[in-house]
Amino acid sequence: MLILIDMVDKKFFPPEEEYHKPQVVKEAIWLGKEAIEKAPKIEGVPTGIEGLDELFYKAEIDPKTGKVIKKSLGGIPRYSVINLTGVSDTGKSLMAEQFTVKQASRGEKVVFVTVESPAPFVAVGLKERATAMGLKFEEFENNIILIDAASNHKLRNNLPDMFETLAYVYRTYKPKFTIIDSITGLFEAKEMLARQIVRQFFNFMKKWYQTAIFVSQKRSGHEELSAEAAGGYAVSHIVDCTFVVAKELVINPYQARLYGAEIGDLVRFFRIDGCRLCGHDTKLHLMEITELGLVKIGPTLAEIRKRKYQRKDLKEDKT
Questions:
Q1: Per-residue pLDDT for 165 more than 70?
Q2: How far is residue 48's CA from residue 70's CA, in Å, rounded to a whole number?
Q3: Closest CA to 167 of 200, 123, 216
Q4: Helix axes 194-207, 159-173, angle to 10 degrees
Q5: Between 281 and 229, whose confidence is greater?
Q6: Contact 268, 298 (CB under 8 A)
Q7: CA-to-CA distance for 122 and 139, rounded, in angstroms?
Q8: Which residue(s) pair with 216 in the sheet?
Q9: Would 20 be classed as within a structural domain?
Q10: What is the pLDDT of residues 168-227, one digit of tens each?
């Protein structure tokens, strides 16, 4: 018995490592100039989502006045890793598909890691999105590389296999964009590990200079307009930027007046919850999902209210 216990102890509780004298890790030290010289140029990537590209800015100094001016980036910042979160039926996958189709139609290679639905079904959705956008899917379908983690448990449950597969795809096809729908599906039933798992994917995207979108799901108890999702704030704390999408059913006159809608309407919202790579719009926007399944970012709630009062004042002036 004693021998057995000793064997178990050695197997599961290895002896402590020998004392390691602290060392200076010089390769981790960068001067600002050195880091800037190695850093990629931040520029806008058009998303294919109406109303979104205009919500990102960069600061420039006017050479004539010396004042700081705000200039549109024209899309999401290249090389950013974005968390796209919301409850069900808020347009998360639609936005990811629109972005995928837009990049593929521009001749770019896109990796789409599907964790929720098998690859052939995702391809059908991508084709539908392309048609709704007025594009012929057949002209760029091979620019989209699907990795089916929904049907392959080895990819879902074994991160080394997932990363090795991604690295193979990156080396073979040279893509610049990666979509994971959803990142939540990679830490189901182990949300305590969410931060660790998300950080590994984030660092992997940075290593391969990917512009990436991680779709994440909210739980029923999460506040809809917050950046919180499954795994808590693990995703939003790590990534560069978070998009929050939400919905609300109009059931009383107050909501109808507030949103300029009718009782019974389903009102959708969009907001950007921080972006460390560039400036961005900070307001709450109304959002639309068209009958053809396209997401459009609309005016801010403040603009809707302003227009309502302007119409009211105009009506009072006429009377």
A1: yes
A2: 22
A3: 200
A4: 20
A5: 281
A6: no
A7: 17
A8: 85
A9: no
A10: 999 999 999 999 998 999 998 888 888 999 999 999 999 999 999 999 998 777 778 888
Which string of DSSP letters, residue by residue, matches the chain?
-HHHHHHHHHHHSPPPPPP------GGG---HHHHHHHSPPP-EE--S-BTTGGGEEEEEE-TTT--EEEEE-SSEETT-EEEEEESTTSSHHHHHHHHHHHHHHTT--EEEEESSS-HHHHHHHHHHHHHHTT--GGGTGGGEEEEE-SS-HHHHH-HHHHHHHHHHHHHHH--SEEEEETSGGGSTT-GGGHHHHHHHHHHHHHHTT-EEEEEEE--TTS-TTSS-BTTBTHHHHHSSEEEEEEEEE--SHHHHHHHT--TT-EEEEEEEEEESSSEE--S-EEEEE-TTS-EEEEEEHHHHHHHHHHHHHHHHHH-
Question: Using an 8 Å Cβ cutoff, are 293 and 94 in contact?
Answer: yes
Q: What is the pLDDT of residues 36-53, one digit of tens each?
A: 999 988 899 999 999 999
Tokens 């900070």 belong to 282
- Decide if 78 is inside a domain: yes
Taken as a whole, the chain contains a residue count of 319
Q: Which residue has the tokens 């109808």?
A: 256
End-to-end CA distance of the chain: 98
| Domain boundaries, position 293 | 42-315
What type of residue is 68?
A: V
Six token digits for residue 194? 């969410």
Q: How is residue 58 written in tokens?
A: 């960069």
Tokens of 16: 């402590």
In a domain, 186, yes or no: yes
- Residue at 13 is within a domain: no
Contacts of 62 (CB under 8 A, 6+ apart): 68, 69
- Find the CATH number of the domain harbouring 52: 3.40.50.300
Query: 112 pairs with which residues across the strands?
Result: 146, 179
SS3 185: helix
Type of residue found at 104: A
Counted domains in the chain:
1
